[in-house]
Amino acid sequence: MNIFDVIKKPLVTEKTTLEKDAKNIISFAVSSDANKIEIKNAVEKFFKVEVTNVNTINVAGKVKRVGKKIGKRSNWKKAYVTLKEGSTVDFFEV
Protein backbone atom coordinates (compact mmCIF):
# COMPACT_ATOMS: atom_id res chain seq x y z
CA MET A 1 0.00 0.00 0.00
CA ASN A 2 1.29 3.48 -0.90
CA ILE A 3 2.13 5.80 2.04
CA PHE A 4 -0.22 8.41 0.60
CA ASP A 5 -3.05 5.86 0.67
CA VAL A 6 -2.36 4.87 4.30
CA ILE A 7 -2.50 8.32 5.94
CA LYS A 8 -5.62 10.29 5.03
CA LYS A 9 -5.24 13.37 7.23
CA PRO A 10 -3.85 14.51 10.57
CA LEU A 11 -6.33 15.02 13.38
CA VAL A 12 -5.70 18.45 14.89
CA THR A 13 -8.00 19.09 17.85
CA GLU A 14 -7.56 20.50 21.30
CA LYS A 15 -7.15 17.00 22.78
CA THR A 16 -4.60 15.85 20.19
CA THR A 17 -2.61 19.07 20.54
CA LEU A 18 -2.34 18.53 24.31
CA GLU A 19 -1.26 14.91 23.75
CA LYS A 20 1.35 16.03 21.24
CA ASP A 21 2.82 18.50 23.72
CA ALA A 22 2.65 16.27 26.82
CA LYS A 23 3.27 12.73 25.53
CA ASN A 24 4.67 13.23 21.99
CA ILE A 25 1.65 11.41 20.47
CA ILE A 26 0.20 12.49 17.12
CA SER A 27 -3.12 11.37 15.66
CA PHE A 28 -4.14 10.52 12.11
CA ALA A 29 -7.20 9.38 10.21
CA VAL A 30 -5.93 6.36 8.29
CA SER A 31 -7.22 3.90 5.73
CA SER A 32 -9.59 1.31 7.19
CA ASP A 33 -7.59 -1.62 5.85
CA ALA A 34 -4.16 -0.32 6.97
CA ASN A 35 -2.42 -2.23 9.76
CA LYS A 36 -0.04 -0.93 12.45
CA ILE A 37 3.12 -1.85 10.53
CA GLU A 38 1.97 0.00 7.41
CA ILE A 39 1.01 3.04 9.48
CA LYS A 40 4.39 3.05 11.23
CA ASN A 41 6.30 2.79 7.94
CA ALA A 42 4.19 5.51 6.32
CA VAL A 43 4.71 7.99 9.19
CA GLU A 44 8.45 7.29 9.37
CA LYS A 45 8.93 7.77 5.61
CA PHE A 46 6.62 10.75 5.17
CA PHE A 47 7.63 12.82 8.24
CA LYS A 48 11.19 11.43 8.67
CA VAL A 49 10.77 10.65 12.39
CA GLU A 50 11.16 7.51 14.51
CA VAL A 51 7.99 5.82 15.75
CA THR A 52 7.97 3.80 18.98
CA ASN A 53 4.31 2.72 19.19
CA VAL A 54 1.10 2.72 17.14
CA ASN A 55 -2.40 2.29 18.58
CA THR A 56 -5.44 2.06 16.30
CA ILE A 57 -9.16 2.53 16.87
CA ASN A 58 -12.06 1.71 14.56
CA VAL A 59 -14.53 4.57 14.93
CA ALA A 60 -18.17 3.80 14.18
CA GLY A 61 -20.02 6.32 12.03
CA LYS A 62 -22.78 8.30 13.70
CA VAL A 63 -26.43 7.99 12.74
CA LYS A 64 -27.63 11.41 11.57
CA ARG A 65 -31.02 12.71 10.58
CA VAL A 66 -31.81 15.38 8.01
CA GLY A 67 -35.51 16.13 8.00
CA LYS A 68 -37.41 12.87 7.64
CA LYS A 69 -34.47 10.92 6.27
CA ILE A 70 -32.08 8.99 8.49
CA GLY A 71 -28.55 8.36 7.28
CA LYS A 72 -25.25 7.11 8.65
CA ARG A 73 -21.76 8.54 8.40
CA SER A 74 -19.00 6.25 7.24
CA ASN A 75 -16.94 4.16 9.64
CA TRP A 76 -13.27 5.20 9.81
CA LYS A 77 -10.00 4.31 11.51
CA LYS A 78 -7.93 6.48 13.84
CA ALA A 79 -4.26 5.95 14.68
CA TYR A 80 -2.37 7.31 17.68
CA VAL A 81 1.35 7.32 16.84
CA THR A 82 3.91 7.70 19.64
CA LEU A 83 7.14 9.32 18.47
CA LYS A 84 10.59 8.69 19.87
CA GLU A 85 11.66 11.30 22.40
CA GLY A 86 13.26 14.25 20.61
CA SER A 87 11.26 13.71 17.39
CA THR A 88 8.64 16.29 16.48
CA VAL A 89 6.15 16.88 13.69
CA ASP A 90 4.82 20.38 13.05
CA PHE A 91 1.65 20.45 10.94
CA PHE A 92 1.43 24.23 11.08
CA GLU A 93 4.90 25.74 10.92
CA VAL A 94 5.12 29.36 11.99
What is the gyration radius calculated from CA atoms? Answer: 15 Å
**How are the strands ordered across the major sheet?**
1-2-6-3
| Assembly form of the protein | single chain
For the biggest sheet, the summary is: 4 strands, antiparallel
Question: How many beta-strand runs?
Answer: 6
Taken as a percent bin, the fraction of beta residues is: 35-45%
Could you name the ranges where pLDDT drops below 50 across 5 or more consecutive residues?
none
- Give the N-to-C terminal Cα separation: 32 Å
Give the proportion of residues in helices.
25-40%
Shape: globular
What does this structure look like?
With 94 residues, the chain is an alpha+beta fold. 28% of the residues lie in helices and 37% in strands. It is built from three helices and six strands; from the N terminus they run H-E-H-E-H-E-E-E-E. The protein has helices at 3-6, 14-23, 36-47; strands at residues 7-10, 25-30, 51-59, 63-66, 69-72, 76-83. It has a four-stranded antiparallel β-sheet. A two-stranded antiparallel sheet has the order 4-5. The longest helix has 12 residues, at 36-47. The chain is globular and about 50 Å long. The mean pLDDT is 93.
Please name the defining characteristics of this protein.
94 residues, alpha+beta, two-stranded antiparallel sheet, 3 helices
Offer a concise description of the structure.
Helix content is 28%, strand content 37%.
